[in-house]
Amino acid sequence: PEKQYQYVNYGNPATQYLQVSTRTGNSTLRRERTYLDGLGRTYLAESPDAAAGNVRQTSFYNKQGLLDHESVPYVGTNLSTEAGTWYEYDVLGRETRKILPGSYSFVTAYGLAQDAAGKSYQSQKLSVDRGDKVLRRYLLKDSLGHLVKVAECAGTVCDNPFSGAADIYLTSYKYNVDDQ
Q1: Distance CA 127, CA 165 (A)
Q2: Exposure of 96 by Cβ count < 10 A (0-12 exposed, 13-18 middle, 19+ buried)?
Q3: Residues lower than pLDDT 50 in the chain
Q4: Global confidence as pTM
Q5: Are 116 and 122 in contact (CB under 8 A)?
Q6: Are 154 and 129 in contact (CB under 8 A)?
Q7: Residue 162 has what pLDDT?
Q8: What is the largest CA-CA distance in the chain?
Q9: DSSP of 9-65, one letter per residue?
Q10: Are 129 and 80 in contact (CB under 8 A)?
Q11: d(Cα 158, Cα 168) in Å, to the nearest integer?
Q12: Do the Cβ atoms of 154 and 163 come closer than 8 Å?
């Protein structure tokens, strides 16, 4: 498919949008619009639907300018500000929780982790509560911020990525002198 990108009314935050026109194999032209505020953030996305008309999704931002809430897709003006995906952040502006429709949630915690040899890592713990099981993934970075280990587990006891428990899977990464 051939795509064409067009900025319309760029510089006017009240009316500016990015239009992506895609010509499909049967020569149908599909136009999707993304409306942008004065800071270049998406506040409304529209996609055509042959049966329903325009399907929209609206984004809301908090006082710090971070994404606070995304609506579920809706048709026409039937916007529900309650249903959708909600976000929470720590004082540094890092995402700490993402709550999806249906009450599934992704929780992220930041800190330090230490292996058995005493080496410290920047730790980012991602947890997904599926109701029947909690899945966890630890992203461990060195002092330069390089991802060096990923620990994954689906058991009930996986609070320490270096515990050696049977249900923890560890992947290691190494970098050469060119940082590759």
Answers
A1: 18
A2: middle
A3: none
A4: 0.75
A5: no
A6: no
A7: 78
A8: 62
A9: STT-TTT-EEEEEEE-TTS-EEEEEEEE-TTS-EEEEEEEETTTEEEEEEEEE-TTS
A10: no
A11: 7
A12: no
Q: Are strands 17-23 and 2-8 parallel, antiparallel or unpaired?
A: antiparallel
Q: What is the pLDDT of residue 104?
A: 82
How high is the pLDDT of residue 135? 85
CA atoms within 13 Å, Cβ hemisphere of 48 = 10
Write down the pLDDT at residue 157: 62
| Inter-residue contact 32 to 47 (CB < 8 Å) | yes
d(CA 103, CA 127): 14
Per DSSP, the three-state class of 81 is coil
Task: Give the Cα separation of 51 and 129 in Å (integer).
Answer: 35
The reported pLDDT for the residue numbered 82 is 74
